[in-house]
Amino acid sequence: MRKINYLFNTKSNFTLIKSYLFNSIRLKFVKKKRIEYIEKYKKFLLNKEITHDYFSRNAFDWINVLNEFKNIKFEFLEIGSFEGNSALFILENFNKVNLICVDQWKQLYRDDGKREGYENLSINEIEKNFDANLKNYTGRFFKKKISSNNFFKKNNKKFEVIYIDGSHFAPDVLDDCRNSWSILKKNGILILDDYFWIGYSKIEENPAFAINQFLKEISGKYKVENFTKFQLFLRKLN
Ligand SMILES: C[S@@+](CC[C@H](N)C(=O)[O-])C[C@H]1O[C@@H](n2cnc3c(N)ncnc32)[C@H](O)[C@@H]1O
Asked: Which atom of ligand 1 is nearest to the CA of 163?
């Protein structure tokens, strides 16, 4: 109920509310399968260097939404790689993917005015874990240690799938959404993390506000593929 209230408080559009409710009902039918799939993925992570698991809970949704890419060549862009958990999932499950991992791996301090939640972690250790976790996949992914804004300025590639899981600060999220949309191919999938993240005390500084603004801008040009407790999956129609 807290999440439904949040959808209303953030003035989420009707399509989102409908998709969220639809997914909550659908989940009841696949609950067992979902738990088993997530547990299997967690087992795979046991010998990896993962100190904070931000991804396993999404594994079942990803394998379903991204099913069409299972055996084809495609370009995947990830904004926010941290210890490489979501990247590992993609590399393990999609054998023809070409993956670009963008993360600035920069220590965030509270006096940046940002409260991203990992100010107290050593970002150097996090980056070392990323390198260790992905060492067996050399040649299948590219690591870009750069801010997302700077990546978008230099990039001239287009992508079938883009995952936004970088900064949670609404103005940054809006930039990431707009920049990603402009380089997402037609029929491509945009995955947005943290719709319900509420780390900033001013409600309008949280991701949902940026995402709702972005959805207004692309009205009529997207389809909601899924909307879970954690992530929104959009398809670009034209
Ligand atoms: C929640 S973590 C990503 C989790 C990761 N996808 C996983 O599966 O574990 C967010 C990451 O975004 C990075 N980040 C934050 N702001 C960024 C920005 N402006 N540009 C690039 N990376 C950024 C942080 O360094 C952090 O590693």
From this structure: 6
Place of tokens 């958990």: 85
Tell me the per-residue pLDDT of 150-202, one tens digit each, with 9 for 90 and over: 999 999 999 999 999 999 999 999 999 999 999 999 999 999 999 999 988 88
Provide the token pair at 204. 């309008």
Q: Does ligand 1 come within 6 angstroms of the Cβ of 83?
A: yes
* CATH number, position 153: 3.40.50.150
Residue 78's DSSP bridge partners are: 101, 163
pLDDT of residue 238: 76
Instruction: Compute, in angstroms, the gap from residue 3 CA to the centroid of ligand 1.
Output: 23
Q: Which atom of ligand 1 is nearest to the CA of 108?
A: 25
Which residues of the chain form beta strands (DSSP E)?
74-79, 97-103, 141-145, 159-164, 184-193, 222-227, 231-236
| Model confidence pLDDT, tens digit, residues 30-75 | 999 999 999 999 999 999 999 999 999 999 999 999 999 999 999 9
The rounded percent of the chain whose pLDDT value lies above 90 is 89
Q: Is 117 left (phi over 0), alpha (psi -120 to 50) or beta?
A: left
Range of the domain at 104: 2-236
**212-215 long-range Cβ contacts below 8 angstroms, 24+ apart:** 212/10, 212/11, 212/12, 212/13, 213/174, 214/174, 214/177, 214/178, 214/181, 215/13, 215/16
Number of folded domains in the chain? 1
Is it the case that residue 211 has pLDDT exceeding 80? yes
Confidence at residue 53, expressed as pLDDT on a 0 to 100 scale: 97
